[in-house]
Amino acid sequence: MEVYTIGYEGRGLEEFVGTLLENRIEIIVDIRRLPVSHKPGFSKSRLSATLRDSGIDYVHLPTLGSPKSLRDALRATQDYDRLFSDYEACLAEEEDCLQELQQWGSERRICLLCAERQHNRCHRSVVSSILTDRAAVEVVHL
Q1: Which is nearest to 58 in space by CA: 128, 102, 111?
Q2: CATH code at 79?
Q3: pTM over 0.85, yes/no
Q4: Distance between CA atoms of 21 and 142, rounded to whole angstroms?
Q5: What tens-digit pLDDT sequence spans the chain (142 residues)?
Q6: Which domain holds residue 132?
């Protein structure tokens, strides 16, 4: 089983959707707490419509978003190790969502979405790592 991740920072909407289509992604799982963006096309309603028109399902799981308190702490300290550790602790309360992700990933090609382009500086790497620890999952960062 493969789970993909992607960040849209530095990409245009056309390039972003093209990358998803090239990798045969079936479901985008938006794990932003707040699915809004100043970047045209990447807020929830427009993005979900664009993806639907391209044959890709869109699901928003806000409970897997990084809490504001953790994002604020990161801005102040730039300590990604602490962010990831604290975020992983928060995920202990999101077992149902994590199981749902694992189920979707076993049935279809899913891709975790956030804004940050670099996966190693984004909370989606923590989610994908948890999935890897639970099952024979290969993570592909687009």
Answers
A1: 111
A2: 3.40.1010
A3: yes
A4: 12
A5: 889 999 999 999 999 999 999 999 999 999 999 999 999 999 999 999 999 999 999 999 999 999 999 999 999 999 999 999 999 999 989 999 999 998 998 899 999 999 999 988 899 999 999 988 877 788 999 9
A6: 2-141
